[in-house]
Amino acid sequence: MEQSMTNQNGKINIVLNGQKKPIKVTHILPIEEQYTYPKHAILRDIEREMGELVGLQEMKKVVKEIYAWIYVNKKREEAGLKAEKQVLHMMFKGNPGTGKTTVARLIGKLFCDMNVLSKGHLIEAERADLVGEYIGHTAQKTRDLVKKAIGGILFVDEAYSLARGGEKDFGKEAIDTLVKHMEDKQHDFILILAGYQREMEEFLRTNPGLVSRFPIIVDFPDYTVDELMEICMRMLKDREYLLSKEAEWKLREHLNQMKSVMLPSAFSNGRYIRNIIEKSIRTQAMRLLMVDRYEKMELMTIEGKDLILQ
User: Domain AAA+ ATPase spans what residues (predicted)?
Assistant: First the structure.
């Protein structure tokens, strides 16, 4: 049988035994829709939610790979083949404000939708939440946090601080306890250790055995000026504000200057933008109050003189 297609009059022409037979169809899905609808609805939702984040291409690729693995694994089960689980503990390396915590929250939700996690909740922790004040206290605190994270994600920020006290520091006990639970409960929760790029690399060197326990290590690069401006515009849109042309130029010039003079670890990326926006909104509000003008465009527009730049 030969088959050819045409979009004319919504028909598919099938050539069978030398005779052309038109069949009426209601809709032909484009290739991209065939890929996401309906059986890949979860992937479509994942891509939409990840698409709300500026940059982070490596992380977006990792999440899609995990979805593909889960989907194909189910097909292997249906075919009677082995379908083993994978360890999904992660390490995020990046400077402040590069989206590490935001991505961790989103991963929890997405992995719950994908049935990787039963709950998908996020437990955030830092050194003080893990390290106790006396022998045995640290292990218990760490076990309690892991218990709370079962079915979800335990996210430890500035994880490198656990190794800063040396061999006699209780931070080492926290690391050892986490490593044990990573093995014993490796499919019951996901551990994500996060921190600055350089410090996390030093952290891994202090305990070489950690590298093999984190199969997914993702770098969160600093945002470019264009990406920071995009983040700014999205934040303003969410708040129903906009920048005047003067304000947009002034902010871009300021970001170029800040990126050239500040150490990467001292620049807080998206957090820096959020702080500028919030200060500028307060300044704009005071300006409007003083002149007693409240027209819609006035209420929406951040002028250059409203920008508080340090």
Answer: 86-224
CA distance 81 to 101: 37
Query: What are the structure tokens assigned to 239, written together?
Result: 């708040």
Residue 231 belongs to what domain range?
225-306
Q: Is residue 2 within a helix (H) or strand (E), and if so which, with residue range?
A: strand 2-3
* CA–CA gap between residue 146 and residue 179 (Å, rounded): 11
Mean pLDDT by 10 residues, the chain (310 residues): 46 51 47 54 78 82 84 85 84 87 86 86 89 80 91 90 72 84 86 89 79 86 91 93 95 89 74 92 95 92 89
Residue ranges of E strands in 201-310: 216-220, 242-243, 301-302
Work out how many domains the chain is built from and give that number: 3
- 176 with 230, same domain: the answer is no
Helix/strand/coil for 241: coil
Closest CA to 191 of 307, 275, 107: 107
Size (the chain), residues: 310
Shared domain for 65 and 187, answered yes or no, is yes
